[in-house]
Amino acid sequence: MSEQKWPQTLWLVRHGQSAGNVARDAAESATLPVIDIATRDMDTPLSALGVRQAVALGHWFGEMSDAQRPTVVLSSPYVRARETTQLILQSAGIVSDRLAWQADERLREKEFGVLDRLTKFGIEQKYPQLSEQRRHVGKFYFRPPGGESWCDVLLRLRSLLDTIVREHRKERVLIVSHQVIVNCFRYLLDRLDEQTILAIDRSADVPNCSVTSYEFDAMRGKNGKLVARLVNFVAPLRDAGAAVTAAPDIPVAPKS
């Protein structure tokens, strides 16, 4: 077998519940067209519950031995992801200046363009033609004006995987990002197709501070591969008494 190119372990973590998730829930419940939040999406912080979720997950990492803990951390540059990362490392007792931690813009949230801050009701009210186009094309390929499709996100993640293979082989890599990023990584690593990943997306949202993990298996494939071990794992939150939340990212649009 040729030399291992993949990380030994890869953890994919969605950020903790954010103030944006809370504002979205309130807007949806009141059937409002616009989510009432003043910050830019990239500046939206964690909610109080999101902080507790991140701390609980950090304790789970803290119970690992030094030989199991992350050696490389990559996060979305968005505030809620950076806060989640910092709280995980602090609660785990992992000294951040002793490992490689980098915010990578390729891990940012999917860009919503003109649909930013709109609820499902707001999208249908303000952009009925776009709403119909999205239903026809499907979310995998639909790109709102000024925004991204899932395919656009996948293209930047393919670039990131090239970087991980080049710079972090045999390492234990923790990635803290967003719901669509977790699902897009699953699409790439498990070699799924459009129908399969959208069926996964329809079945349930990725819980906040959940863990999806992969381990390198030298016996799989021609040169070994990353194999899924955990999917949307939330036991650390339940064990710590932190509520599990699985709100979709904003804006909300019909599942397809």
List the helices and strands and how they pair.
Elements: E1 9-14, H1 19-29, H2 48-62, E2 72-75, H3 79-92, E3 100-103, H4 120-126, H5 128-137, H6 150-167, E4 172-177, H7 179-189, H8 194-203, E5 211-217, E6 225-233, H9 235-240
Parallel strand pairs: 1-4, 2-3, 2-4
Antiparallel strand pairs: 1-5, 5-6
Notes on the protein architecture:
With 256 residues, the chain is of the alpha/beta class. It has a domain at 9-21 and 47-111 and 148-240: 3-Layer(aba) Sandwich (Rossmann fold). Helices cover 40% and strands 14% of the residues. A 6-stranded mixed beta sheet has the order 3-2-4-1-5-6. β2, α3 (79-92) and β3 form a beta-alpha-beta unit. It is globular, with a radius of gyration of 18 Å. Mean pLDDT is 92; it is low at 252-256.
**Overall strand count:** 6
Helical proportion, percent range: 25-40%
Per CATH, the superfamily of the domain at 9-21 and 47-111 and 148-240 is Phosphoglycerate mutase-like
Task: Return the CATH class of the domain at 9-21 and 47-111 and 148-240.
Answer: Alpha Beta
What is the CATH architecture annotation of the domain at 9-21 and 47-111 and 148-240?
Answer: 3-Layer(aba) Sandwich
- End-to-end span in angstroms? 41 Å
Q: Over the alpha carbons, how many angstroms does the gyration radius reach?
A: 18 Å
Q: Could you describe the largest sheet, including whether it forms a barrel?
A: 6 strands, mixed
Q: Helix/strand-derived class?
A: alpha/beta
Order of helices and strands: EHHEHEHHHEHHEEH
Low-confidence stretches: 252-256
Fold-level CATH name of the domain at 9-21 and 47-111 and 148-240:
Rossmann fold
Strand content: 5-15%
